[in-house]
Amino acid sequence: MGHVVSATEARIRFGELMRRAVESRETIIVERGGKSHVVVISIDEYERLLREQQGKDWKGLVAQARAQIQTELGDRDLPPAEEIVRQVREERDAQLLAVR
């Protein structure tokens, strides 16, 4: 889970908590009134989490895929989605018939 400290303790020992987050890669949870409010993590961990989150951003993945496809197509137009689905189905059906 992480090391839990009160807001008062975090204020008093912030330098030490920063060092622990960076050197020991520890996650420090700061509570106020018994409820978790903030987390102290290293910038490396924060950037890793951002990269991981971006990987889950499907809109970004779609945009990246479109850009790659357009690069591969060059000046040619992308066929309609229905045509691509039809071609894939035909290839799949041919493979299934070849197996039998």
Structure in words:
With 100 residues, the protein is an alpha+beta fold. It folds into two domains: 3-46, YefM-like fold, CATH 3.40.1620.10; 57-99. The protein has five helices and three strands, in the order βααββααα. The protein has helices at 7-12, 14-23, 43-55, 58-73, 81-99, and strands spanning 3-6, 28-32, 35-40. It has a three-stranded mixed beta sheet with strand order 1-2-3. Strand 2 and strand 3 form a beta hairpin. The longest helix is centred in the last third of the chain and has 19 residues, at 81-99. The model has no long low-confidence stretch (mean pLDDT 88).
Helix percentage range: 55-70%
Q: List segments where confidence is low: pLDDT < 50 over at least 5 consecutive residues.
A: none
Q: Assembly type of the shown chains?
A: single chain
Going across the biggest sheet, name each strand in turn.
1-2-3
CATH top level assignment of the largest domain: Alpha Beta
What about the largest sheet?
3 strands, mixed
Q: Give the number of helices.
A: 5
Summarize model confidence as the mean pLDDT: 88
Q: By CATH's scheme, which homologous superfamily of the largest domain applies?
A: YefM-like domain
Q: How much β-strand is present in the residues?
A: 15-25%
C-alpha termini separation = 53 Å
